[in-house]
From TrEMBL:
Residues 12-124 form the Glycoside hydrolase family domain. Gene3D superfamilies: 1.50.10.10. It comes from Saccoglossus kowalevskii (Acorn worm). It comes from the Eukaryota. Coiled coil: none annotated. Its EC number is 3.2.1.4. Keywords: Carbohydrate metabolism, Cellulose degradation, Glycosidase, Hydrolase, Polysaccharide degradation. The keyword Hydrolase applies. PANTHER family: ENDO-1,4-BETA-GLUCANASE. Belongs to the glycosyl hydrolase 9 (cellulase E) family. It is an enzyme of class 3 (hydrolase). Signal peptide: none annotated. It catalyses: Endohydrolysis of (1->4)-beta-D-glucosidic linkages in cellulose, lichenin and cereal beta-D-glucans. This is cellulase.
């Protein structure tokens, strides 16, 4: 019996490319010059918190116009973990910079949503918000 590796049925480089592209299609806010989704433009530029905090950016959740910090935090954590575990695969696919940009996009919004030591905006939609205030 041969011990040679069996060829795979999947092009995992294409899977990584399309997975990251999915997150790029969900971006909210001012899109970067590196935007690879030609039909997407800037969106939700008026997203603000109770005291006028800038809540632009992040990803839309479930294909709608809501941004939720809990699912977004989970997604960022899983993306980062996957990148750390399989960095060589992202490198081989030529997707390292796109993956790092993807992780940063979600992380930047999460930092914006944490507007005070005991305050976190957990949902933003159409310029509205839901906040958790620890006071």
């Amino acid at each position: 019996a041969s011990t040679a590796a069996q060829p795979t049925l999947y092009d995992y480089s294409d899977v990584l490319y399309k997975s990251i592209l999915f997150y790029e299609a969900q971006r909210s806010g001012v899109l970067p010059p590196t935007n690879r989704i030609p039909y997407r433009g800037d969106s939700a530029l008026d997203d603000k918190g109770l005291n006028g905090e800038d809540l632009t950016g992040g990803w839309y959740d479930a294909g709608d116009h809501i941004k939720s910090t809990y699912p977004m935090a989970f997604s960022v954590a899983m993306l980062a973990w996957g990148y750390l575990e399989f960095k060589d695969a992202y490198e081989e696919a030529g997707e390292i910079q796109n993956m790092l940009d993807c992780i940063r996009w979600g992380t930047d919004f999460l930092l914006k949503a944490h507007t005070a030591p005991n305050e976190l905006y957990v949902q933003v939609w159409f310029g509205s918000y839901t906040a958790i205030n620890g006071h």
